[in-house]
Fold these 2 entries.
Entry 1:
Amino acid sequence: MDTNEKKALLSIQNLDVVFGRGKKAFKAVDNVSFDIYKGETLSLVGESGSGKTTIGRAIVRINPCSAGAIYYDGKKISGKLSRKDDREVIRKIQMIFQDPAASLNERATIEYIISEGLYNFHLYKDDKERIAKIEKIIRDVGLLPEHLTRYPHEFSGGQRQRVGLARSIVMEPEFVVADEPISALDVSIRAQVLNLLKKFQRERGLTYLFIAHDLSIVRFISDRIVVIYKGRIMEIAETEELFAYPLHPYTKSLISAIPIPDPIIEKGKKLFIYKPSEMHDYSVEQPSLVDIGNGHMVFGSPSEIEKYKKIRYGE
């Protein structure tokens, strides 16, 4: 399906997020713009501290925007909202947090944790329907109804992340921000959680923003990938396009860091190190994010963009 025919469910336009004031001000997100289409999984990838989680938290209105705007289904959701619109955004956009231990209330039972959103938005007719809803969702994430009377500390990391997933999905959202939902989990559990995310997407028509630093995992789950470095977008492309033609040197460095299953090849592999000061000279030409065709966007100066086009399409 051509991207022009797709409907942008979430649109981020020229977003800045600044922490602190005056001399202590730190710009965590710098002039970021991208769309997320209905029903797709868009992954936001970059190293620690690149601003990925900051963007995710700005979407769910935890971090305020310093400039720019965020639109959901055509309506502006950044800045001040009426109580009615605020509640609507909270229900439609849910977040799965990175640390399953820190994001669950240790003093509450699993039943209460999953029911909290249902209570706040009164998404049930009577207690019988509420219990039926939470028993169904707990089964859907691979846990049992008898787990509902327990507390978070009685579960493993993978089980806690399933509880976090159940808490988000029970709200019947349209859009989910998944902030590194598997980075704290064992490798064997990661695939199970990713499969759950894909299952819910198929069954419920969900749209995901998937935040990660591991490109190999992102390849499995994403339709498109946004590569971000120090708060700025370096490259945007469809998943297989990005892996076939990584154009920006930072994207190349991330791909070169993916481990190879063969230990002999892995041992002899040469890592590509990204050194911006040596690779770019922006004192003469100003860089910008340019679409070079195929929905493939790259950040660079005019001469760099020409070079990238030659690499992608040949002479």
Entry 2:
Amino acid sequence: MLPHSAHRIHPEPGGSSQSRTLLIVFLTVFLDLVGFGIIIPIQPFFAESLGATPAIVTLLGASYSLMQFLFSPFWGRLSDRMGRRPIMLVSILITSLGYLFFGLAHSLAILFLARMLSGFGSANIGTAQAIIADSTTAEKRAKGMGLIGAAFGLGFIFGPAIGGLLSQISIATPMYFAAGLAFLNFVLAMFFLPETLDKKNARAAASTSHASFSWKALRHAARHANVPMLLTLYFIYSAAFSLMEASFGLFVQYAFTEGASDTAKAAARLTATALILVGVTATIVQGGLIGRLVKTFGEWKLARFGLLMITIAMVSIPLVGSTHHFGLFAALMPLMALGTGTLNPSLSSLLSRSVFVDEQGGTLGLAQGLAALGRVGGPAVAGLLFESHPSGPFYASGVLLVCCLALAMRKPKVA
């Protein structure tokens, strides 16, 4: 049972209006994630073409996440005051510019600046989650949050496939396509994305929100039951998962491209294949199953189950890599996606239901900021661990995930 403070304080939206809003948010996040998915399989090898070592490659990901850490709470709390729609529009346009500069980069310095600009713009997931929280009942919150997860999953189906195909033209072509896709997203959001924040709640939020990530913002959010535990889970889990993410393409190149005439192209193709498997599974779980799973098991049980599945997959990756059999490696991807597909929407739903409605945008943005901080720390050391031994990032991730699982097993508090 969740605290009474989490109950909504304005009337529920109508069914058809709610469905239309959720569809538009889904499309907005989907297009954003397709662009992101286009970049992932080729980013390590694009950076290597400019002289990057594995440590520098993973630092590139850390720079992207650093901007998300700094600005996720900023966007979320600004959306509590100014409205969700203008924040989404501005952030999407910034993301488009970041992709464009990425494709134009001819040095590592410009490449880092481009990724930081994209990270600044794409720090809007907390705002997208807040739109869903505005538009759903507490009982349907996890299903609504699952739409974002489904958008992530579909982005990882279409994005890597498009990136792998366009990279055959030139390594920069996928970047330009991602920039154009993001601009199309901006145009569609301009015409169709509605405002969901109640004006009364916007005025209330203006007097309590904090403009950036801070200990004061953390203390403000932590006064609610279960919020400290949930925010801690966001942080540790994100650090653990990013250790794997940052090393993923490099590990594929190391373990499964021996004998290839062009290891970078082979690794990009295999990485895209693995990510497509992740995307298909995540889409099925978060787009179609999460609502029924929550009704049957509840968010806490699903979060624990998700952590267990991810932990098993993570520690199995280096073991499978030692066989140099890509088919076995690919078989682990649905298991990992099943874990993330149940964990991510469950955590978002639990957090949004644990705070006042006028704090949802800021709190979800704060959580995304902490997650981004974890994604700064993970990649910052992933490259060094990989250079020491290619299995290092995965075993380090497994240790952190076990810590998350132990924390999640604690009984939640009732306010």
